[in-house]
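Bench log, entry 3. Co-assembly request; chain sequences pasted below exactly as received.
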Amino acid sequence: MPELPEVEVVRAGLARWMTGTRIESVDVLHPRPVRRHQAGAADFAASLAGTSVVDVVRRGKFLWCELDSGQALLAHLGMSGQLLLRSQGAPDERHLRVRLRLAGGPDGAADGVARELRFIDQRMFGGLAVTSLVPTPDDLPAGRGGTGAVNWTSAVGGMTRSTGMTASSSALLPPPVLHVARDVLDPLLHEKALVARLRARHTAIKRALLDQTLVSGIGNIYADEALWRARMHGERPAQALTRPAVVRLLGHVRAVMTQALAQGGTSFDALYVNVNGESGYFERSLAVYGREGLPCRACGTPVRREAFMNRSSFSCPRCQPRPRPRRDARLR
DNA sequence: AATTAGCCCTGATTGC
DNA sequence: TGCAATCAGGGCTAAT
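Structure output for the full assembly:
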């Protein structure tokens, strides 16, 4: 399941091989993955034909190609989405949904072989769309811009781009991404404000970590891994956590994602945009996720699995004790 | 306004 | 053997 590290690996691969290419033609093989493109599949294809990729940018789990038309090709991998660069004529993958035929390319790719960018998605929670790009003042929720706590120059940009980790001149986002907060690897993340917002939530800390409007890029896997490293149960009320505890937790989120990113960066095929969110190298490094009944890597206690929002949470019963039921603070 | 439940999807696996 | 239930889960929408 692609979370921040996996999406960043894809973004980097696309930036390397897509920048400077022209999209010649587009086949939409299944309507669902382009459902977010309001004008329909035909318009989706027509909007892309003839445009060239200027840059590839990411925010949280969204990524997009900036096009010379001024628009963006927005992508989300959902649960099972992949973006693969293939040679034209290579056999279609089983769940191939969208095909983009490419021409041209960066230096080093000019071997005369025509390529395609393929969107493959079994479950089709992900998708593609062509959108506008709109300026955004900062990463605060809509209507709360300009509080003075964050100045313009430090607030603008913050998407991960192929040219570096920050944007200087253009702080342009696709409208569907406007509500997405920065991630823990973003140098422009306002960490102090994030800690305050997390601690203000009337919910469990794991739910807060998964809320993309607070901090982006974290999914079920890395939430569980970071909580284990912090020796903290995900049901702990966010409000009851001390400031240092939240800072430590975010440090663990950052550390586990950095390690995963480093391992995901080992690509075996230069033209394969590695989207192995499910079978990446990092899987062997997981401490608790998917390891029900297996020994905790810290203390040996069998890993526990609990229901959580119609899915699962994995934790160590000993390292991460469940919080005691707490009387409502207002009643005391 | 903030928070939460339900829905969307398909294929592999499990249960009867 | 065959069919149905279960699970995977990010993001969006509706409900509270």
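Residues 139-157, 163-170 of chain A have pLDDT under 50 and may be disordered. Residues 1-3, 61, 76-80, 123, 125-126, 210, 212, 219-220, 309-312 of chain A lie near DNA strand C (CB under 10 Å from a C1').
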